[in-house]
Design goal:
The protein has helices at residues 12-21, 112-115, 121-131, 142-156; strands spanning 27-29, 35-37, 41-42, 55-58, 62-63, 78-79, 83-84, 99-100, 104-105, 139-140, 170-171. The protein is elongated and about 50 Å long. Helix content is 23%, strand content 15%. The protein is built from 4 helices and 11 strands. Helix 3 packs across helix 4. The strands form 3 sheets. A 5-stranded mixed beta sheet has the order 1-2-4-6-8, with helices on one face. The protein has a domain at 7-109. The chain starts with 11 loop residues before the first helix and ends with a strand. By secondary structure, it is of the alpha/beta class.
Length: 172
């Protein structure tokens, strides 16, 4: 990949070059090196392993599906419309936008096996933040996930059971 330098160290001309390369228009470079985009960003099908810039706000949609992403680092904090990160190699949703106007698509990633236990991204993120059962090394603290599922079942009147195993993850 051409842009391997950390985005924290980019100057404005490097950011301009990357935005031009990916056809990103109507953007503002913030003092912290993040960018705001008035419109949408499309990084889909680019064989990316990392998001090449650090975004703050995107008023439209943010598409980064069908790549080789292992992290959502660099994704915007706010997306005004759709956030789509499906069909990557994501084992966690760290870096996922904190606010999305419409919908988050994440299917086709290893993390989806865990997210679906909680009926979707928003609820999963709340339980992960509260119980911290998923570690960065694809290890799941089993008793914490059990507690999270128990609370989820009671609160939402569900009957989700702890899977004996979750492909790609190890219980500790």
């Amino acid at each position: 990949m051409k842009y391997l330098k950390l985005f924290e160290n980019f100057d404005s001309s490097e950011i301009d070059n990357i935005c031009n390369h990916y056809n990103i228009r109507n953007y503002t470079i913030n003092s912290d090196g993040t960018i705001d985009v008035d419109g949408s960003v499309n990084f889909s099908n680019k064989k990316l392993r990392k998001i090449p810039l650090k975004f703050n706000k995107v008023s439209g949609s943010f598409y980064c599906y069908e790549n080789e992403l292992t992290s959502l680092e660099g994704c915007p904090n706010y997306v005004g419309s759709v956030f789509s990160c499906g069909f990557n190699e994501l084992t966690s949703l760290d870096g996922c936008p904190k606010e999305v106007g419409e919908r988050i698509f994440f299917n086709g990633n290893p993390i989806s096996r865990i997210v679906y236990l909680f009926d979707g991204v928003r609820i999963y993120l709340e339980y992960q933040e509260t119980y911290n059962f998923l570690r960065k090394d694809c290890k799941i603290v089993k008793h914490l996930l059990e507690e999270a599922i128990k609370d989820f079942n009671e609160y939402y009147n569900k009957q989700v059971e702890l899977p004996k195993e979750i492909e790609g993850y190890t219980y500790i």
